[in-house]
Amino acid sequence: MHQNQLPTPVYLVDAGKLEDNCKVLQGIQQRTGCKILLAQKAFSMFKTYPMLGKYLAGTTASGLYEARLGAEEMGGETHVFAPAYKAEDLAQLDSICDHIIFNSLSQLSLHRGQCHYASIGLRINPQCSTQGEHAIYDPCAVGSRLGVTHDKLSLEALDGVDGLHFHTLCEQNADDLKTTLDAVEQNFAPYLHKAKWLNMGGGHHITRDDYDIPLLEQCIDHMQYNYGVQVYLEPGEAVALNAGMLITTVLDIVENGGITTLILDTSAACHMPDVLEMPYRPPLKDSGDAGEKAYTYRLSSFTCLAGDIIGDYSFDHPIAIGDRLTFQDMAIYSMVKNNTFNGIPLPSIALMDRSGDCQVVKSFGYADFKERLS
I want to staple 108 with a disulfide (CB 3.0 to 4.6 A). Which of 102, 206, 282, 286 is the partner? Predict the structure, then answer.
């Protein structure tokens, strides 16, 4: 069916754009010998995993359930990192995962004896903040709970540890990776020389138009050549960047204090939480900033949360009840974060092929809401 025939709200994922992104990532792997994994915390539409698995080396997880999903649906390598693990999860993770990465020396000491098959890694904290906009996502902030600083490490403490992991970026370019690597080399070089692999985490916006791929490849080549490590990258956003839409319908239009608000059948709080958390302004097809075009509206939701505001947008023509609007770049951090606050239904999930034909692959109903409660 055509996308205009899809019931709303609906996440629509563009399989062709996903594949185009993966071909960019595959080229980096082929030229450098690095391995790139899908970070499922950003995108977990496992219907697409067989296709993604043709281009990527595997998946990375933040816990047992994501690890199981990646191993079952994509295969390839399965990696996991969590700030802390439950002992009862470790036995399953050890049988599922190729790499298990610990966040602290105490977690390493407590659980390393349970890892009989997986390669063991430790997350390090380079203490090098490159976040200019999104402080909530800065793992190198003072007091961070993520990663071990160099003053806490020793070669003895890392006995039996195969690799090091850092994750410091969020929607950033390769220049920030280069800055981070300089700090990593300065503070952790003795441990890098002992390591078999180095995982440089996610946050690399590799498939963005202005991303400096040659500099990224120089960074990878430098680390692999100088330290003899296998480099891993685990982007989530780069895999599904600009590969999804959230299509919504205008249910009502209200006015108060000179502001005209569109009430939509989607929600920032329920269906795109990053709008409130980061905060983040999602791109909207055929719109402009407030006042840029002739007709300006505030976009909101049919939840009862007064602050469930998506943002102010302008249009070339008046918007009417029943019109459909399309938010763009909605594949990432949407399906994985959504919720049923207020009993709001979850959007359906649809997949579009290169010809434009759309198929609904998952719909949700009352049972999905009720089964999360008790």
Answer: 102
- pLDDT value at residue 374: 93
pTM: 0.96
Q: Report domain extents, the chain.
A: 3-11+244-330+338-370, 33-240
The number of C-alpha atoms within 13 Å of 65 and in the hemisphere containing its C-beta is 3
Looking at residue 10, what is its pLDDT?
A: 98
> Is the backbone peptide bond immediately before 345 cis, with ω within 30 degrees of 0?
no
3-class secondary structure for the chain?
A: CCHHHCCCCEEEEEHHHHHHHHHHHHHHHHHHCCEEEEECCCCCCHHHHHHHCCCCCEEEECCHHHHHHHHHHCCCEEEEECCCCCHHHHHHHHHHCCEEEECCHHHHHHHHHHCCCCEEEEEECCCCCCCCCCHHHCCCCCCCCCCECHHHCCCCCCCCCCEEECCCCCCECHHHHHHHHHHHHHHHHHHHCCCCEEECCCCECCCCCCCCHHHHHHHHHHHHHHHCCEEEECCCHHHHCCCEEEEEEEEEEEEECCEEEEEECCCHHHHCCHHHHCCCCCCECCCEECCCCCEEEEEEECCCCCCCEEEEEEECCCCCCCCEEEEECCCCCCCCCCCCHHHCCCCEEEEECCCCCEEEEECCCHHHHHCCCC
Question: Which pLDDT score is estimated for 184?
Answer: 98
Reported as a single tens digit per residue, the pLDDT across 165-206 is 999 999 999 999 999 999 999 999 999 999 999 999 999 999
What was the pLDDT predicted at 279?
84
Pick the CATH number of 3-11+244-330+338-370 from 2.40.37.10, 1.10.3720.10, 1.20.1050.10, 3.30.420.40: 2.40.37.10
Fold of 33-240: TIM Barrel (3.20.20)
